[in-house]
Specification:
The complex is a heterodimer of chains A (about 300) and B (about 140). With about 300 residues, chain A is α/β, with parallel strands linked by helices. Chain A has two domains: about 140 residues, Aspartate/ornithine carbamoyltransferase (Rossmann fold, 3-Layer(aba) Sandwich); about 160 residues, Aspartate/ornithine carbamoyltransferase (Rossmann fold, 3-Layer(aba) Sandwich). Chain A contains eleven helices and nine strands. In chain A, strands 7-6-5-8-9 form a five-stranded parallel beta sheet, covered by helices on one side. Chain A has a four-stranded parallel beta sheet with strand order 2-1-3-4, sandwiched between helices. Chain A is globular and about 55 Å long. Chain B has about 140 residues and is mostly beta strands. Chain B folds into two domains: about 80 residues, Aspartate carbamoyltransferase regulatory subunit, N-terminal domain (Alpha-Beta Plaits); about 45 residues, SH3 type barrels, CATH 2.30.30.20. Helices cover about 15% and strands about 40% of the residues of chain B. Chain B contains three helices and nine strands. In chain B, strands 2-3-1-4-5 form a five-stranded antiparallel beta sheet, covered by helices on one side. The longest helix of chain B has 7 residues. The two termini of chain B are about 35 Å apart.
Chain lengths: ~300, ~140
């Protein structure tokens, strides 16, 4: 049985195969419409989410399967003090596969120790979010036609931004990628991510607080929101939340074939006027999220078409 | 107990001076019924000063814990008054319930019944990372 807790649980070859499956699903959706008939996906969201939960549920429904679960901790037994392990043990008796989101870091790892069905980490606090990473990789692949040889800029909250940690890890395994890390000093990429994903492999990266100065060199810009829920101190959040705002004016200096990604939801870090720019890939990214999750569910259930 | 020689037991030698009490506590030696001698600041040819622990019983020690605390310790197994085995230690790849994660956002902090699992991340720097949340733990 396989789980997806961390993006590095998947080899580069497995990620490439998932992307190939997702591309085939996009091209031939009817072929997959009954791939998971009779199978049940449990979506256990101990922390609210609209996009990720609906994306998982839509993915399973489009594969002919069914879904069950809860969308907040208050409507689960965790509100009564039940441990993650006990909840997972129980749900393992009903469902064939579980996608879970939890505010505590490492909760999916704890779940995987007791689960009898595959566990998918749908986000654990500020730690990891591997299916968003798969979504990002599929989007880059569809936008650029490749997953190597480009300069990628990560901008915003790189400290608590779990999607950033996972994507840096994943991209570090492809050839000739240059990383530009753009953040306030207080929200820099954690040292362990830099050391293990970049430094130890001799991968070049630069750190800056100035988005505009590095924008012209980027092939991909990955924007993130400063997340209120990750701060213990409200004052610090208010001070940092408007650090970067991408506008059409700033984009005048960017490459014509830049791809702008964002894991969403956004607050104000991308001006809505940017949505009309063909370089804005974030709405296409949302659709890709469903497709790659369909491919992942099939893989973890051992389903082939 | 004669601390110069034991008949059947274990001698932990080459302990960094001052660390013997920490080892005593980590290995729960206070729970043993046999004699245990702690020799502090003994003179050593290689180390100038060292600590030694002598346990007067053939106990089964957690070598992972010992290796984590001080990988330079030598474990001497004594049978019938003779040295029958000398074990050299290394930093273990995995630690279970030896140290606890200090990240307040980690699931092991709110659910303390979970095993605290750490994996060796950098042997040269003696650093471990929590298997759950990846928080780094550097040995003091």
């Amino acid at each position: 049985m396989r789980n997806l807790i961390d993006i590095t649980d998947l080899s580069v070859e497995e990620i490439d195969a998932l992307i190939a499956t997702a591309e085939d699903i996009i091209a031939n959706p009817a072929r997959y419409s009954q791939a998971c008939a009779g199978k049940q996906l449990a979506t256990l969201f101990f922390e609210p989410s609209t996009r990720t939960r609906l994306s998982f549920e839509s993915a399973m429904l489009s594969l002919g399967g069914s879904v069950l679960g809860f969308s907040e901790a208050a409507s689960s037994s965790s509100a009564k003090g039940e441990t993650v392990g006990d909840t997972i043990h129980a749900v393992s008796c009903y469902a064939d596969i579980i996608a879970m989101r939890h505010p505590k870091e490492g909760a999916p790892y704890a779940a995987a120790q007791v689960a009898e069905v595959p566990i998918i980490n749908a986000g654990d606090g500020g730690h990891n979010h591997p299916t968003q990473t798969l979504t990002d990789l599929l989007t880059i692949h569809r936008e650029k036609g490749r997953l190597d040889n480009f300069t990628v800029g990560f901008c915003g909250d790189l400290k608590f931004g779990r999607t950033v940690h996972s994507l840096v890890n994943a991209l570090s395994r492809y050839e000739n990628i240059r990383f530009v890390l753009i953040s306030p000093l207080e929200l820099k990429l954690p040292r362990y991510v830099k050391e293990e994903a970049l430094k130890s492999k001799g991968i070049p990266y630069t750190q800056t607080t100035d988005l505009e100065s590095v924008l012209p060199q980027l092939d991909i810009l990955y924007m993130t929101r400063v997340q209120r829920e990750r701060f213990f101190n409200e004052e610090e959040y208010l001070r940092l939340k408007d650090s970067y705002v991408l506008t059409p004016e700033k984009l005048e200096k960017a490459k014509a074939d830049l791809s702008i990604l964002h894991p969403l939801p956004r607050v104000n870090e991308i001006d809505v006027a940017v949505d009309k720019d063909p370089r804005a890939a974030y709405w296409r990214q949302v659709k890709n999220g469903k497709m790659i999750r369909m491919a992942l569910i099939m893989k973890l259930l051992g389903v082939e078409v | 107990m004669n601390i110069d020689s034991i008949q059947n037991g274990v001698v932990l030698d080459h302990i960094q001076a001052g660390k013997s009490m920490e080892i005593y506590q980590y290995l729960h030696l206070d729970q043993l019924d046999c004699s245990v001698a702690i020799i502090k600041n003994a003179r050593s040819g290689h180390m100038e000063r060292k600590d030694i622990i002598k346990i007067d019983s053939p106990v089964d020690l957690d070598l992972d814990v010992l290796g984590y605390i001080d990988a330079n310790i030598t474990v001497n197994i004594i049978r019938d008054g003779k040295l029958v085995e000398k074990k050299h230690l290394a930093l273990p790849e995995k630690l279970v319930n030896v140290i606890r994660c200090k990240n307040p956002r980690c699931i092991t902090v709110s659910e303390s019944q979970l095993d605290a699992i750490f994996k060796l991340s950098n042997r040269a720097k003696h650093t471990y990372r929590c298997a759950y949340c990846d928080t780094e733990y550097r040995q003091k």
